[in-house]
Amino acid sequence: MTHRPALAVVGATGAAGGALLQILSQHEDVWGGIRLIASPRSAGRTLAVRGEECVVRALDEDALAGCDVVLFLTPDDISARWAPVAVARGAVVVDTSAAFRLDPEVPLVVPELNPHALRIRPRGIVASPRDTSLTLLPAVGALHAAFGLRELVVSSYQAASGAGRDASAALRRQLALVSGMELGTATGDIRRAVGDGGLGPLPAPLALNVVPWAGEVRPDGWSSDEVGLRDETRKVLGLPGLKVAATCVRVPVLTGHSLTVHARFEDEVTVARAHEILATSPGVVLYDEPALGGFPTPVDVVGTDPTWAGRVRRAPDDPRALELFLCADNLRQGTALNSVRIAEIVAAEFPR
Description:
By secondary structure, this protein is an alpha/beta fold. Helices cover about 30% and strands about 20% of the residues. This is aspartate-semialdehyde dehydrogenase.
């Protein structure tokens, strides 16, 4: 007996939700139905998916009933509360929050790297990594398979949209307020122009500025984004002792995360071999012709699926280390696409 599974998307009206609905409309239709769910304040809105208008339902137990796969694009507390409810109702949950990523009974999956992890999910939940990890992992995972990764030093340059729609809106307002100011303008002038009420969820003005902080406070001066990038990389690659140091920075870009990466390997590396690996790896595009102005930037990658890799160099003082620059659309590739791919793998488990 065949069964086309029913999908529910919780958090459909958010920034990542818009990208996810686009992806669902572009991919092969494997679903018997798609239900859109959000907070009560968004209930009643109408959104288009696969050419059909869908009315958004408020999140409650009835909204989750009858769904085979439930995809959560929600804050940690919402996922932590409602994902077990969806599982109890018979669904497999794919969660994009941090609520379950490090739970030993929840697989953390990047389909290009560890699809086998999906087979065992004792809690009925599959987690998807954060957007910075998803920018990093397709490229670094491919290089690890060839050379044996031993150490990472990463700096992120994260778009405002990674902190949500309110952060993007705050950046847009700030840019309008400081329009005409020069880059050398005193910090106090920018802060006065923006005001405390114009920061939104950001800890400091982002227009004409960079903010060396992303996430929540963690012990010893680290942020949750920095600790999460380390722990998620270790879990996905199966390297619990991997040395990872990360510094996460918010930059005045609306969409598109970028990373600089220093990766040290067990084996000696060459740029030619690294180019070959990156150019042929799923989920990665190599764009590395700096003499011709060829390297990825957020402007180039918005709206695309892969992680883009460029500026590939062997470290001048270490034949086992590579330097590279990575860039990806944090809403599409960094959140929506990975979760859809996980959900589609789960959907293939149903008899057809």
